[in-house]
Amino acid sequence: MHYSQSSIDRADHLRKDATALQQLRVADSTRLIPVYEGKSLTTTGDAPPKALMLDATLPSTHPEVFLGTDNQRAYFAVDVSTLDETARTELISCACDIDGNKQSGAFNDLRNIGPLLPDDDGSLLAYARGLVYWNQHTRYCVRCGELLSSTNGGHVRHCSGCDYIAFPRTDPAVIMLVTYQEAGADDLCLLGRSPAWPEGVFSTLAGFVEPGESLEMAVRREVLEEASVHTTNVRYVASQPWPFPRSIMLGFEAQATTTRIQCDPTELADAQWFTRDQLRSFGNWGDEDKGYKLPRTDSIARHLIDRWIGTA
Ligand SMILES: [Zn+2]
What we know:
Layout: H1 12-15, H2 18-25, E1 31-36, E2 39-43, E3 54-55, E4 64-69, E5 74-79, H3 85-93, E6 105-108, H4 110-113, H5 119-136, E7 148-151, E8 156-159, E9 165-166, E10 171-180, E11 188-193, E12 205-208, H6 215-227, E13 231-242, E14 247-256, E15 270-274, H7 276-280, E16 283-284, E17 293-294, H8 300-309
Parallel strand pairs: 1-5, 10-14, 16-17
Antiparallel strand pairs: 1-2, 1-3, 2-6, 4-5, 7-8, 8-9, 10-11, 10-12, 11-15, 13-14
The structure holds zinc ion.
């Protein structure tokens, strides 16, 4: 699954060891993953994009997060969002690949460039983006309003006023492929489209899990709320981190017990039942031409759909 293929050891035991982290931070082999206003540094040019990094010579003047280690080096994310254009250009001129070779690059939104990246690179950039986002947006204590400070290598934020401790949050969202089977007829799959999506794109339904709700309950509630379809036999398939900005997508299949669709217009512009043959004729997210399209290739929605198409 895209964004979940990182080979990095998160090395939790090092997070509380400030001395060890400081030594790693300045080591020649260390690589820094810069994040600028949520954007990630990637190569430019005709070749498929790759993640770009900085070496350890960048001064520690920006908020940093220890990401972990692999067999060769340590990785830190660096939030460079306060850089002006001149400083940013200079920083980009120092960009290198994982082996330290200089490369030309630019800051790009992972939401756009993610599907084109190698899995390992996409996973590393998603991890860095998620933690930088959380640190940026967890500035004040929810209990007493004091400024929080970063500890444990950027994985904990602490309030010196009331001792409150904040941990990185991930919002669980269920995403489900709903199918309908009737003897003697082609199997059907329910897909919908959000009013905000590019023309023609249809995808699986999805929604956030609410307090006091099991994942299976969330699946059934969301499908009923959005499309007025009743479901049963909810089965877990797979999950995917989705740092846009801080979700984890929990993928399910469910069987419909009713087929009449009535869309909630605030959630769905349209929803329809499709056969496997119909889905095989769909184009892809990003295609220029008109017509039906499947969701982006880096999404668990696409994984669920491709999986279903492949089963017959
Ligand atoms: Zn506090």
